[in-house]
Description:
Layout: H1 3-26, H2 28-50, H3 57-65, H4 75-90, H5 94-117, E1 121-122, E2 125-129, H6 130-140, H7 144-147, H8 151-163, H9 170-185
Antiparallel strand pairs: 1-2
Amino acid sequence: MEKTELERQLLHMILGLLALAILLVFGRGILTGMMFFIVIIGLLLVNLTYLGKKTGIVELFVRRFERTNVPFPGWGSACYATGVLLVASFLTDPNVIAASIIILAIGDGIATLAGKAGRIRLPYNRKKTLEGTVAFFIASLPGYFFVGDIIIPIALIAAVVESLDLPLDDNVTIPVAITAVFLVIL
């Protein structure tokens, strides 16, 4: 695995844990407001980039952490912030939001790292591995401390969604799936 991917996934997990800490310390309202602010600022910075303006540290961040095959600079960050914003906006129970953030941050981050080292390709998506999907599920289980046993089917559904070859970024599809399932069962 390339060093950049390891750094990208570590950042993915650290930012998720930061979002979790903000939720636990300051509450859902502050987390939602911060994520909304981050999405808006990010869109403004992307717009400046398209207008040919230099964005300094943002350019450095994008060069260091963004994948090369994305629709626009900052795509991954925009999808991640949007995913957290979606969860915090539609789910009201802080424990459910916390479990959802763990799934998105830790489950998805570990899935990528384990998947890159995996060897057993999924029959329905040859770009993904069984090891990555299993790692996603296992790494999502600390959500148990927030929602109990319900984490098992939620983590399983999220792991399956992450493993699908969908046209949307999984930083959006995973939160959409988690949010939908939680809204149906709670």
